[in-house]
Structures are given as structure tokens and as C-alpha cells.
DNA sequence: TCTGGGGTCCTAGGACCC
DNA sequence: TCTGGGGTCCTAGGACCC
């Protein structure tokens, strides 16, 4: 491993789901559009051949925005916001249903396009990747500017979509850099730029500082920006946030990150969950709940089988009407991908959960995964055997 | 009528074993 | 009938991310 400076890119597709939908419905370009909710608001063909799109004002339900176009963001709409709340802010916004199959197709397409130019890619979900450019010839000359521009052009040619790229010496800085010039941005940063370009940003922008940590930093330390975090005494961060997280906060604020670009990652869990249209009572609404529960288990089993995996641990997740979340898991003696075995184990978990309160969500999860057909480890002898 | 669905990683305590 | 330290497995919850 050379000690030479690394060149790591972070590529983020711009408003990905919404941009894919705009390819399908170009007449919506420039309009406020959000993606989200169920399947009930498909565009309806009109007698004159045009399409009639649903708008937020007619939405009823518990869905959230998964992606908003930049025009919709101008109204204050953003991903994660409840659609009912969004409807109050901008009722005329077009609402399109989520079509994950289509987004996955475009995801594969843009990643394949990048791989033609730079094959060392770390998947970070459907719409973003890290790319290690360090081995690309001539990258040091311009710190990755030319190859990043070429990647942007190749993605655009392959998908019709724009993306934003940050290139820096590490993943942490690249993730920050890719956001600095969105949409259709290209930002090159070196370590010497951290003070001027990164330190003014809110600490919350750092990948790994979420709402809780950001609130504590501000309330307990008066820290709002990354620069203020960088100036904090390491031992104080460690006292407040623990040895591991405190030390990481300090390093992150100084733009230090040694993590490698990881090209292969094993799945550690698979889950299925659903939020009910109205809160259900475990006993009184049992007739409604039971088939949903069984179907989640069947879907989970199918997911496992599709991935050729088996699970040793099966768990459930409940969300109560007050949004508290509870989990129960059970580890089985033998791994399974069978719907009946999963249903049985999940049923045992459910017996150990309090069910007085109404539920808004029910989920089933498989973990301790292993390849299908892995021979079971030798079992400890049964009591009966010892005295046989 | 606030708050989806799919993930990862970390912590912490108890059981059990050497 | 005290006193250990370390290791693994399991469970529950929480923070965070896309």
C-alpha cells in the first residue's frame, strides 16, 4: 500500500427518483413534483390523450415524500416529510407513486456506466456510490477533475440523468464535497481546503452526526459548525460522547478518515415491514392482522430464497400508536428460509411482546444469515443422550 | 391524522464456558 | 462458597443512513 494521497470520489444522483419519473413524464419538467405514498395515485389517461396527475391536496394517508424535485424543494418540501403536511404547504404539487423496480433499473445502469471508467466502486444504496480513483492513470495531475467530468458525462449519456460528484482524499470529505455544488456539481477538495470549505458547514452535515448528536453538540457544547467541532478539546468530546464516538467526532471535524472503498459487502439482515392505514389492536383487529403478519413472513421467505440465504435468527418489530418501537428476536437451532418456520418463530416472538396498545407498524426480520445449504454445526448432546 | 421501508453498526447486560 | 479475567453467543434498544 502506497502512502501517496488517495483520490476518492462520492457520486450522488440528483433528486434520483424524481429525475427518473421526469424522464417518463417530460411534461412535468420544472414543476414541483414529489414521489411517495402508495399505488393509488397513478396518472390517469384522459380522453384527449393527455395524462391527469394527482396532486398533494387529494392525498389521504400516512405516506412520506421519498424525493422532491428542486422546484418542490423551493416550497419547503423535502424527503421524509409526511405527505399530509406537504399538502398543506403546497397543495398543487404533483404526486407520483414510487416505482422501485424502475429506479433499480436506472441504478444498475448508472453504476455500470461508472464501472466502465472506474471499476473500484462501493455501493451505498440505490442512488449513490463511492469510487476509488487512486489507481487511474494521471489522476494525480488534476486531483481527479478530468476523470470525474468524464464519469458525469458517461452517466448522463447512459441514463439521461445528472449527478453530483465530490473528489477528495477520503470518503468523509467526498460525501461532503458532492453536496457543495448540487445539482450537476463537480467539486474537488484537498486537505488544505478543509478550513475554508468544510469548517463553515453545520456539524449535522457530517455523515454520522444525526439529529440527536447535533442537538447535543449544540445544547451541551454550543457547537453548531464543523469548525467549532474541530476547535473543541478532544478530551471533552470523549467525556461527553464516549471514547469511540468522541474521538471520531474530533477526527471527522478535521477531515480525517482512513476508511477504504469496500467493493463487496455481505448482507447481514433482510426485513419486511408495513405501516397500517389505521392503528390496529392486536386482539380486536386480529382478523385483519393475522393475514398481514403471515404475508410479511412469506415475503421475507421469498426474499431469502431469492438471495439463496437462510436465517438463524427471526425477529419482529412493532411500532405502537405513540411511535414507540419494540423488537423481539429468536435464534433457531437450524437456519431456515421456509415461510412456515419463519411464521412460527415470528409468532413466538409476538407472544413475548405487550399487545395492549394499538399498533401502527408490524415488521419481520431475518438475521444471522448464511448461504442456503450450509451444514448445521454439531449440536450439543441432548440430556437424554447423556444418560442413554 | 406529523413521522415509509429497507438497511448497518454500536452498546450493554446476562448466560455460559474455560 | 471467595476470588479472576476473557471469550462467545444471545437479546434489546438506539442512532444513523439512503
From TrEMBL:
Domain of life: Bacteria
SUPFAM superfamilies tied to this protein: DNA/RNA polymerases (SSF56672), Lesion bypass DNA polymerase (Y-family), little finger domain (SSF100879)
Ranges where the UmuC domain occurs: 8-210
Enzyme class: transferase
Location of the protein in the cell: Cytoplasm
Catalytic activity: DNA(n) + a 2'-deoxyribonucleoside 5'-triphosphate = DNA(n+1) + diphosphate
One example GO MF annotation: damaged DNA binding
Cofactor note: Binds 2 magnesium ions per subunit.
Key words of the record: Cytoplasm, DNA damage, DNA repair, DNA replication, DNA-binding, DNA-directed DNA polymerase, Magnesium, Metal-binding, Mutator protein, Nucleotidyltransferase, Transferase
Positions contributing to Mg(2+) binding: 12, 127
GO annotations of cellular component type: cytosol
Biological process annotations from GO: DNA repair; DNA-templated DNA replication; error-prone translesion synthesis; SOS response
Keyword Plastid (UniProt): no
Main subcellular localisation: cytoplasm
EC number of this enzyme: 2.7.7.7
Cofactors that this protein relies on: Mg(2+)
Positions of the UniProt region annotated as Disordered: 368-388
Residues forming the catalytic site: 128
Keyword field contains Magnesium: yes
Pfam families given in the database record: IMS, IMS_C
NCBIfam families associated with the record: PRK02406.1
Summary of subunit composition and partner proteins: Monomer.
HAMAP family: DNApol_IV
Protein name: DNA polymerase IV
Gene expressing this chain: dinB
Amino acid at each position: 500500500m502506497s502512502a501517496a494521497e488517495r483520490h476518492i470520489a462520492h457520486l450522488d444522483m440528483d433528486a434520483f427518483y424524481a429525475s427518473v419519473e421526469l424522464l417518463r413524464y417530460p411534461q412535468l419538467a420544472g414543476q414541483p413534483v414529489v414521489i411517495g405514498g402508495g399505488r393509488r395515485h397513478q396518472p390517469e389517461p384522459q380522453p384527449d390523450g393527455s395524462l391527469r396527475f394527482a396532486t398533494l391536496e387529494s392525498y389521504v394517508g400516512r405516506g412520506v415524500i421519498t424525493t422532491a424535485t428542486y422546484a418542490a424543494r423551493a416550497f419547503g418540501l423535502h424527503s421524509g416529510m409526511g405527505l399530509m403536511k406537504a399538502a398543506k404547504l403546497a397543495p398543487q404539487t404533483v404526486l407520483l407513486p414510487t416505482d422501485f423496480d424502475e429506479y433499480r433499473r436506472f441504478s444498475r445502469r448508472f453504476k455500470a456506466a461508472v464501472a466502465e471508467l472506474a471499476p473500484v466502486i462501493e455501493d451505498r444504496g440505490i442512488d449513490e456510490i463511492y469510487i476509488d480513483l487512486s489507481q487511474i492513470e494521471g489522476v494525480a495531475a488534476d486531483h481527479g477533475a478530468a476523470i470525474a467530468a468524464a464519469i458525469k458525462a458517461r452517466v448522463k449519456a447512459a441514463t439521461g440523468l445528472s449527478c453530483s460528484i465530490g473528489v477528495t482524499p477520503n470518503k468523509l470529505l467526498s460525501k461532503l464535497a458532492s453536496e457543495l455544488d448540487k445539482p450537476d456539481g463537480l467539486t474537488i477538495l484537498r486537505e488544505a481546503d478543509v478550513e475554508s470549505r468544510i469548517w463553515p458547514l453545520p456539524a449535522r452535515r457530517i455523515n454520522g452526526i444525526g439529529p440527536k448528536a447535533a442537538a447535543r453538540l449544540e445544547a451541551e457544547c454550543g457547537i453548531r459548525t464543523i469548525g467549532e467541532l474541530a476547535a473543541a478539546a478532544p478530551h471533552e468530546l470523549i467525556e461527553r460522547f464516549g471514547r469511540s464516538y468522541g474521538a471520531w467526532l474530533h477526527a471527522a471535524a478535521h477531515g480525517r478518515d482512513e476508511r477504504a472503498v469496500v467493493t463487496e459487502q455481505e448482507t447481514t439482515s433482510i426485513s419486511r415491514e408495513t405501516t397500517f392505514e389505521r392503528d390496529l389492536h392486536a386482539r380486536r383487529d386480529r382478523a385483519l392482522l393475522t393475514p398481514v403478519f403471515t404475508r410479511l413472513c412469506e415475503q421475507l421467505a421469498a426474499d431469502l430464497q431469492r438471495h439463496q440465504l437462510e436465517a438463524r435468527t427471526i425477529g419482529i418489530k412493532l411500532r405502537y400508536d405513540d411511535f414507540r418501537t419494540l423488537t423481539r428476536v429468536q435464534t433457531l437451532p437450524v437456519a431456515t428460509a421456509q415461510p412456515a418456520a419463519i411464521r412460527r418463530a415470528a409468532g413466538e416472538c409476538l407472544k413475548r411482546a405487550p399487545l395492549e396498545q394499538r399498533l401502527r407498524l408490524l415488521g419481520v426480520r431475518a438475521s444471522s444469515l448464511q448461504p442456503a445449504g450450509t451444514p448445521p454445526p454439531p449440536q450439543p448432546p441432548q440430556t437424554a443422550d447423556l444418560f442413554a
